[in-house]
Design goal:
mainly beta; Immunoglobulin-like; five-stranded mixed β-sheet; 20 strands; 10% helix; elongated
């Protein structure tokens, strides 16, 4: 793409350059220096969904969901430049990576100025958007309880249920009234029959949260969290069970039940 015929109209040349990501120096991309043969890390504010590297001279991987690790392949004697495309849940960013020396920074944070918004229908809210809403909700003082339960000197509450877009936000809190530290084994969400006996063989539908605000392995006295589920519907003879279980050998378990009517009457959050 560097040898574009001069007789082509200027606007066509620019369109082709943008489409094929060529002629990086003319496209206004942020230039980043690769620190010699060291590793360069791109840190994204959102989980990375897609990466494109314009040359085989570089190799990259995602050691964690929001970090792209990049370096020159061992078999490449000389690296000149490349264009790196990174897409998150709601943005795309491109960088011109050029050869640098050992003094170049080994970490690049993707800033808002680097991002082009992606309008992908049906993708829903990004993890950052869910986090912002959840942080706002947990900063509010609980005003009551939709549901309560207690066992083994452990008390649980569904403080509030909120609805936003295609999501249900559950404000949960637990109180440990013993002097024994509660080590969390799991927090599960299942749709079951309202009345279940230990001897009954029933099918339950387990729901996986799309977002959990806090990862709490254990708590001494109190625990509060915001859990986000996709909107769901279920028959009136079913209930959404929220089951908190403790690690063995103690194994205390507490279950909270939410009816579909309570979900239907969730408090709306403003757009």
């Amino acid at each position: 793409m560097k040898n574009i015929p001069s007789f082509l109209p200027c606007f066509l040349s620019l369109a082709m350059l943008f489409f094929f990501f060529g002629a990086s120096a003319q496209s206004g991309l942020r230039t980043v220096q690769l620190p010699g043969h060291a590793t360069l890390h791109f840190v994204s504010p959102e989980p990375i969904q897609y990466v494109d590297i314009s040359t085989k001279h570089l190799q990259g991987d995602l050691p964690i969901k929001n970090v792209l690790r990049l370096r020159v392949r061992d078999s490449v004697p000389v690296f000149e430049e490349a264009v790196i495309t990174i897409a998150g849940e709601k943005f795309m960013a491109q960088f011109r990576v050029v050869k640098g020396d050992g003094t170049a920074p080994a970490q690049v944070c993707i800033e808002p100025v680097d991002m082009k918004p992606l309008d992908i229908s049906g993708i829903g809210l990004s993890q950052n958007q869910l986090r912002r809403i959840a942080l706002d909700l947990i900063s509010r003082r609980p005003s009551g309880a939709v549901e309560r339960a207690g066992a083994f000197s452990l008390k649980g509450k569904v403080n509030s249920i909120y609805a936003f877009d295609d999501y249900i936000f559950l404000d949960l809190s637990y109180r440990n009234k013993t002097n024994l530290r509660y080590a969390v084994e799991d927090l599960r969400f299942k749709i079951d029959d309202q009345k279940v006996t230990k001897a009954s063989n029933v099918q339950s539908l387990e729901l996986k949260p799309v977002f959990t605000l806090l990862q709490v392995p254990a708590f001494e006295k109190s625990y509060r969290n915001i859990i986000v589920l996709k909107k769901m519907s279920f028959p009136g003879n079913k209930v959404l069970h929220i089951e908190l279980s403790e690690q063995q050998p103690s194994g205390r378990t507490l279950s909270l039940g939410i009816s579909y009517q309570e979900i239907l009457h969730a408090d709306p959050l403003p757009n």
